Amino acid sequence: MARPSAVPTVQIDDARVIVTEWRFTPGAETGWHRHAHDYIVVPMTSGDLLAETVDGESRATLTAGVSYTRPAGVEHNIVNANDHEFVFVEIELK
Questions:
Q1: The CATH number of the domain where 24 resides is what?
Q2: What is the Cα–Cα distance from 52 to 19, expressed in whole angstroms?
């Protein structure tokens, strides 16, 4: 069964950063992608995300306002594992 797509809205794309708001309905996914830049995620809501990677699946419980960072090169598909909308802001460092 196909999942709905998460909705990205680019807020800033300049010489230094790309700032994107991601909105996920329940069960929505980003689709497989590889990050070209180091990035920071700022959750705007709390809940669980499922990360599908080449090495398997993992779940992370995120808390609104508690940020995390990952390096460039990460390849994954992110899925909203909640029964409510999940929103985060992603800041890519060019």
A1: 2.60.120.10
A2: 23
